[in-house]
Amino acid sequence: MVNIKKWEEEEHWVEIDLDLCIGAAECVNVCPVEVYTLIDGKVIADNIGECTDCLACLDVCPTNAILNHSAW
Ligand code: SF4
């Protein structure tokens, strides 16, 4: 079964495939407003409401686990 999770707040949202997420934390490190947090080896995006659509997180994931993002 596919394990895709979506976090959404107002006009900002992100969809992540948690089966693909390996906990590399590249998105955690690159995001300037701390949208992402790593919990038990998987990323969560509980702070998506702070997203500034800077696009920085979109290229850094080594497994392309960020499937869709409102910044695209
Ligand atoms: S687009 Fe920028 S601000 Fe938004 S989640 Fe990605 S790195 Fe963070």
Structural features, described:
It is a single chain. With 72 residues, this protein is mostly beta strands. It has one domain: Alpha-Beta Plaits. The chain is built from 1 helix and 5 strands. It has one helix at residues 26-30, and strands at 4-9, 12-17, 37-39, 42-44, 66-69. The strands form 2 sheets. It has a 3-stranded antiparallel beta sheet, with no helix packed on it. The protein has a two-stranded antiparallel ribbon with strand order 3-4. It is globular, with a radius of gyration of 11 Å. The model has no long low-confidence stretch (mean pLDDT 96). Iron/sulfur cluster is lined by residues 30-33, 35, 51-57, 71. Iron/sulfur cluster (SF4) binds at residues 30-33, 35, 51-57, 71.
State the gist of this model.
The protein is mainly β and 72 residues long.
